Amino acid sequence: MLAWLTRTTGWWGSIASIGLTGGHELHTTVMPFILRGINLLGINSVATPRTLRLRLWQRLATDLKPPKLKLIAASVIPFDDLPMAFPKIMESHHRGRIVVKIA
Q1: Which of 5, 26, 53, 92 has its CA 20 to 30 A from that of 33?
Q2: Dihedral, CA atoms, 73, 96, 71, 52, nearest 10 degrees?
Q3: Which pTM does this prediction carry?
């Protein structure tokens, strides 16, 4: 995903990356960074103070909430049901994203 983003991000664009869902390797060249001024920004949420994280989570739930989230989420499940979803995911029988409802 990150390699694709470096090829498709416009001039002077920035890519923010958090987590390793797609793996830890990045298969690309330095060309997008040099020729189009692309920035790759790593996000270290572990070192972010809790008060700032809470403010950011609040914004993600309001004004920064993705407008088409319902279109990309295949299902919504309660947190307690998460272990039942793992076998389908591990056996490649699930498609799309799963939103986990915490409360």
Answers
A1: 53
A2: 50
A3: 0.54
* Counted domains in the chain: 2
Looking at residue 31, its pLDDT comes to 92
CA–CA distance, 53 with 56 (Å, rounded to integer): 5
The CATH number of residue 5's host domain is 3.40.50.720
| Phi then psi dihedrals of residue 4, to 5 deg | -65, -40
Maximum separation of any 2 CA atoms in the chain, in Å: 47
Give which of 101, 60, 58, 59 is closest to 81, Cα–Cα: 101
Query: Are residues 33 and 11 part of one domain?
Result: yes
Confidence of residue 97 (pLDDT cuts 50, 70, 90): confident
